[in-house]
Design goal:
Helix content: 55-70%
CATH superfamily of the largest domain: Outer membrane efflux proteins (OEP)
CATH class of the largest domain: Mainly Alpha
Strand order of the largest sheet: 1-2
Shape: rod-shaped
Strand content: 5-15%
Order of helices and strands: HHHHEEHH
Number of domains: 2
């Protein structure tokens, strides 16, 4: 009998190692890949745009994060995979089912041999502890896969956030640069207008030729056409 029991334990021990461990799928990447200093800081610091101390940019990024559909989808998927991971992980632990019930009965007077009224209280509790032996690693493989899906989903959310913030901040910086160029063009136009006025006065006074006045006029209109 002992030999049979020992043989059964050895057989179960051998079965427990059946099944390959979960491995994350390989993704082809370049052999060498280096980030510039600015890009490294952007990846390491998710709130990098706050360094500009621009309340308008902060508000635009906040609105984009709140209203972006892709980010909402990524957040919903994280909640889904988080629940799936918790569910599969719970299967690895013992399950306890408990039940309690109570009953009260009353025997009327004269209904028994003693002739007295009898009241009986009956209480009953039960508990069932169950545990599934993961002999073949099925539950552990499912938990590892669910955890990998959760981590991949969280990484996808970070990617969406980084791409979204980068797009908003980049467009905003481009807009600010255009505003600055527009301000410089308007200031240049004012300078050209003053130069044209002086050139015309000097031409009318006979101090310069008409060519100088025409050249100042051409410079003025060349600057004016650049302003929307």
């Amino acid at each position: 009998m002992r030999k049979i029991l020992l043989l059964a334990l050895l057989t179960l021990g051998g079965c427990a190692a059946v099944g390959p461990d979960y491995q994350r799928p390989e993704v082809p990447v370049p052999a060498q890949w280096r980030l510039a200093d600015g890009e490294m800081q952007a990846v390491a610091n998710p709130g990098w745009w706050r360094q500009f101390q621009d309340p308008v940019l902060d508000q635009l990024v906040e609105i984009a994060l709140q209203e972006n559909k892709d980010l909402k989808i990524a957040s919903a998927r994280i909640e889904e995979y988080l629940g799936r991971y918790a569910f599969t992980r719970a299967d690895q632990f013992p399950q306890l089912d408990a039940d309690a019930r109570g009953e009260r009965s009353r025997t009327p007077t004269g209904a028994n041999l003693t002739g007295d009224t009898t009241i009986r209280n009956l209480y009953q509790t039960s508990a069932l502890l169950s545990f599934e032996l993961d002999l073949f690693g099925r539950l552990r493989r499912a938990t590892e896969a669910a955890q990998a899906e959760l981590l991949a989903t969280e990484e996808a959310q970070r990617t969406v956030i980084l791409a979204l913030v980068t797009a908003v901040a980049g467009n905003y910086m481009q807009l600010r640069a255009l505003d600055q160029q527009l301000a410089i063009s308007r200031q240049t136009l004012e300078t050209r207008a003053e130069s044209l006025r002086i050139a015309r006065l000097r031409f009318q006074a006979g101090l310069t030729s008409e060519l100088d006045a025409r050249q100042a006029e051409a410079e003025y209109y060349a600057t004016a056409v650049q302003i929307p």
